[in-house]
Fold each of these.
Amino acid sequence: MSARDELFTRLKADRGDDAPGDAALAAELDRVFAALPVPSREGLLQRFVERLNEAGGEARVHESVEHFLGWLIGELRDSGAASVVLASHKDFAEMGLSTKISATLPALRVHELPAAFSAEAHSAMIAEAEAAAMGIGRALAGFADSGAIAILSSRNESRSLSLLPETHLAVLREADILPDLGNFSHEMTELLKTDKTSAITLVGGPSKTADIEKVLVTGVHGPRRFLVAVIRKSA
Amino acid sequence: MSAPVELRPENLRALVHERIGNATLRGNIMRATRTSLDKRLHAIDDYEDWEAMRDAAHGIKRLVLDNLAHYLETFERNATARGTRVVYARDGAEACAIIVDIIHRAGGRVAVKAKSMTSEEIGLGHALAREGIEPIETDLGEYIVQLAGEMPSHITAPALHKSREEIGRLFAEHLGIAYTSDPETLTAVARRVLREKFLHADVGISGVNAAVADTGAIAIVENEGNARMSTTLPRVHIALMGFEKLVPDMRSLTHIVNILARSATGQRISCYTNIIAGPRKADELDGPEELVVVVMDNGRARFLDDARLREALLCIRCGACMNTCPVYQTVGGHGYGSIYAGPIGSVITPVLQGMERAKAMPYASSLCGACSDICPVKIDLHHMLLWQRHRAVEGKLGHWFERLAMRGFLAAMRSPFLYRFAAKAASMFAPLFHKGDGTTRLPLWSRSRDFRMPAEPSFRDQWKERTHERKG
């Protein structure tokens, strides 16, 4: 008997013949969750900002897209960044992100992501992300109870963009801030079941460690800084 | 300096003695466990009713435990549909052989490893090295422990037992840098060395914090970003999990994520929760070309046979029971000699490695119950420890003298006559063993505890005297 069959035989014997069906198990699970209090919808933005900052991230709230762009350009200028990697989302193009950065900071190289995967494009993309001062991507959702965000691997946003550069900046719309992670589970299920992505990453702060005598050090493997630019609803 | 005692559960007594006199080590462990506990209190304060969170976590994992075949089959079906290969291993040796084979087929020579207790459990690193594959631990704590040729001493802080000076000397020796004990500098050095490894490794190996049945996704929780690296850059990603790591759906996963970091390190959420369903899709820009999930038994099914121990399979490996345990706080993870230390380690090691080897572990507890109180999935740890002691005694694994003494004690407690006789005999003979400080030296019994001199006159005589006075 194969290892698989042996294990399944053993596990099936444990349950016996009265194994409940999908519907019964789903109902049982619903009962478990029904006992939990509903998370508060009060002060989502404020809690998100506080908790992200507490976790070592940096939240920046912007009243308008123009305000956001102005801040970003200032941030890049002040840090002396030589190059950035930019996700190719449609709304980034609509904001004029790439053109405005290039127009104001001509010396800064803005790397766009390749249009499709190929071995050569992949190597070049990794090398660019490795050298970039900042990777700029989107946050699909933010969570007020922890200050974390969800990011998605897609044709428009590589995983390495938010992993290899010194700084990861995620752009989040205020409307996408949810009370907690549980409120996002349905959307995650849909994304995975419809094969929209192979990787959803919840990011709760900059890469960090306390493995040497519990001393906190950021940027152990991934980004040293984790920025979330929140664009207000009115914008 | 004499050679250190080998880290094996059989050596528990010697390991504890070795550590109990080491003030630096004890200070480090105490500080680290206290920090985690304090931060945890702050983080669970987010919830008006943390008990409800624990109850729900227990409910989710209990449902899985009672329907393992169903959820494993569902996971396998959905994971396979997303292009993940799911393979099974009876034990550690089989899991190692499978992983070696995958790496050889992929033409791999270097494997970057994210932290995984399960891979430590089966000695995967050594197995890879024997087959000519260079295994590189990439979690900073694990990397330190690997350079030192040791094993991790805490689930979430593997190098808890090492001082910054020791780590500085280790890095100077192995990485050819000038000696420094500055954690920031040492971390930067590790970043530089390991980044190169990530960029050139053929295979990434990780554990699994939870496998989600209804989507076939796996979740890997971490703070450093090394698991993200290991599951993003190499061509092949191999994830190793015990079959008990299942959760029914994404909603259940988010609940586990909500309680895990809060219980483990006192963070609200870890820096990275990697939710991975299959290899890179055709239109995605990066990610591994191949994802293999190795589902392992390695003794876990044995828990199903014992109604009093089966809930040990609910464990989500947060380490809170260790942080709160007065024994762990004193001797640290290495004191137990098992890769799984603390209360949960003392419950599961006798099952995974056999009671004969691990019979001392259930006794490394005061049975105070702090572990059961803190466990986020409500495992009744201290009663399990008591039960493991029972099993150790049933198995006639105790010392013959202790068993004889216990039998005598039982007889005396059941008969007033025998009790009086034994008490008299004790006060008569005790002076022969008196150490001069009010305690006695009894063979075996008093090796690790004090046994006070019997009171003179005895309690019974004093009582008789008093009641007599009062009546009179």
Note: Helices of chain A lie at 3-15, 22-34, 44-54, 65-79, 90-95, 97-104, 119-131, 185-193.
Amino acid sequence: MFPYLPATLEDEKVILNRLGLNTADEVFQHIPDTIRLKKELKLEQPKSELEVEGILKNLSGRNLDAGNTPFFLGAGIYDHYIPSTVRFAVSRSEFYTAYTPYQPEISQGTLQVIFEYQTMICELTGMDVSNASLYDGASAAAEAALLATDSTRRKQILVSETVHPDARRVLSTFLNHQNVELVTVPMREGVTDLEAVKNAVSAKTAAILIQTPNFLGYMEEIAEVEKLIHQNKGLLILSVDPISLGLFKSPGEWGADIAIGEGQSLGNSMSFGGPGLGFMACTKSLMRKMPGRIVGQTKDAEGRRGFVSTLQTREQHIRREKATSNICSNQALNALAASVYLTTMGKRGLQEVARQCYDKSHYAASTITASGKYRLAYEKPFFKEFPIISTVSSERIQNTLLHKGIIGGYSLNRDYPELENGILYCVTEKRTRQEIDVLTRILEEMA
Amino acid sequence: MREYNKLIFECSVAGRRAYSLPRADVPSYELPQNLVRSEAAELPEVSEPDVIRHYTNLSQKNYAVDLGIYPLGSCTMKYNPKINEEAARMPGFAEIHPLQPVETVQGALQLMWELENMLCEITGMSAFSLQPSAGAQGEALGLMIIKAYHQYRGEDKRKKIIVPDSAHGTNPASASMVGMDVIEVKSNKEGSVDLDALKAVMNDEVAGLMLTNPSTLGLFETNILEIADIIHEAGGLLYYDGANANAIMGITRPGDMGFDVLHLNLHKTFSTPHGGGGPGAGPVGVAAHLADFLPIPVIVKKQGLYDLEYDRPMSVGKLKSFYGNFGVLVRAYAYIKTMGAEGLKRVSELAVLNANYMKEELKEYYELPYEQTCMHEFVLGRLKINPYGITTKQIAKRLLDFGLHPPTIYFPLIVSEAMMIEPTETESLESMEEYISALIQIAKEAVENPQIIKTAPHNTPVKLLDEVAAARNPVVKWQKEDTKD
């Protein structure tokens, strides 16, 4: 007997009798014998809960986690504080054991959560319409590019070199299959080269994708890009860190047509990089071409407010090959976590988190560079991440830090080899002054 | 209990807060004023009790597997074991960063490596990628691999993909996503792929065939070997949509049926929760001749150490950030460890027995377009005696009054008024009996009291919702003025 399988031998007999069969195996007799599996699968024997728990504890115990170790690693996934309210809400099985709200009358919980999520994403990004979320920030970038090519009927996307390398890789994968040209605009002094943007934008350009704060942590100069792209009737796609929006101008204020980003920071654990969520919001004029689910408000037969999935004629289950995307789900539980996070932090809390990230990262940057042995790659405004370069090899730095029980920053060797021994440090509100001081001291001792 | 009908924004009172943060322990630094936003985002201002009451109240407006049977066909709404939830929340899994040094995440990489191997064994494939976030992304990846294979062999013109008319809408949508053209083939009267129709569309532009087996009708394609021969002889590849893999574990394997590429939905067959619509995971398996095309990075084991390999020149590239929905992978791993070979086979046996049992009990009252033995699900048509023209949608809404979740309705498209029922192996005989009785009672009401069906639902938190009005005049976010009356 298995604990998840309620059928007793008696129950099975009732079913077999009803079907006129003697054994369970007979129910498969229509499957050609040549493809029937004649032996047992080569897997281990079934295990008790205690044994399984033991195996998993053992595996998880062999990973160094942020609960026990100060992390200065960001680069797209962030170690932010997660309020207990979030864990509470996502642990309610009325949420996590439900499926897509196909039957709205018995799914008002999920639907209202998504409606509120959409509202909060619109508030944060300053955009008109948000969808119910996409797989992650990188796939949101790809979907945004496809939305732009679809709505402008142009076949070229510009992407800044300062956009997250994984997002650029995913963009390249998807655009390649759509025969859309992807042009990378180089960076200059840590931000998108405006001169290069000017040269690249043309009447062929569907959109330009800029990330701010960018992969290196720096705030981009959006105003000029916005002018250039809109003069050419292309779209501006801005990828943003949602936490930064507690302090900094929203994509809406910059005049973006589509705002996207990775929403993991909003109450979702790092979980080795997934699941997180990709958020996407756009202007009203793009709403009917937006990919993914959208929840709308309506009334029930008695005039009460209720919520339903709406604008479904965009979606694959109706449009099949003509759908705006093949996505047929969203990251509902991660969007719930994001909603509970934003509700818990609220208007002031999000500002305070952003402010603490800003202050702590600036404190870290100033202490690390104080001795002159390390320096910031560029002196530009940044939010919570900053690249440090030095004459000490980044490998030695990372190993020494690890040896002392600290997870250092992200080594930029692979993605930005021109930054000599560059390491991208991230300082969230979770890091303490003492941890930053220890990091600084270890770095100084090495140089 | 009282009715709860508030949006969180309507609970907001300026000055309330639900958060606490440590006091700032560093100096404050000047902000670049030209970059600062002009107004704070209007997020709710509520207390912690407000937060908890709001979300608890909302949760109570949801139906869920933990409340009762949820027999959505092709969705495999089985029970989600609780040890899996605990495992995914272990700090060594939840609080690790994808970019930390590989020597500090050996446990995570080992889990993924072992999971890949277990999925290979279950499906008869040679290599897996755990990267896709969901079935749809898995499909897109599988098709990219097929495309890359043909390109590698200099057959760039192979861009047509054959999809049966019973397929999920995702199949053709995924094909478009990767720039392939869809050819639809009709099913024959037994619900299987029509072999002559298939032969008729084969040519040297065909990249392959996407097939769900068992099909969305819940029927096993007994001609699968012939189908595989037709496709392979014409130079195409076979894609297996693993949406319905719950029916075949330990019974038969896609690899042995001749499939070259497949995806699995871990949130269906391998018991990870559906989360209200996500996150899922849609790992892709391939036969040996396609392994080089899998996305980067690939997990490798060298001298007892696990590593991530990026240098794969033939790879189709990257599909999502990092390595996949790891939290979902942990749950699936725990499930396979718990069940073992014996348990997984038992799962498929019971899933299939349960579906056949419900089919036999209901076919007296509802049309059964395909009578043969079904696999893990079956499809019914309209009521057999239906003097007042009750529709499937009305039956579904009436089921809500019994506190039960309706089946998948109006799908597959080739059965009119379809109801697709998948009880799964985790429903007991009593639970199935309750569902059967409700559907039989509705069949009786359809003759004796049709009004009660036509005005359903009666007992839900809201009554029938107007979806047409929602689409005509979309209100997709809350605005202050909406609440002022």
Note: Residues 84-341 of chain A form a domain with the Aspartate Aminotransferase; domain 2 fold (CATH 3.40.640.10).
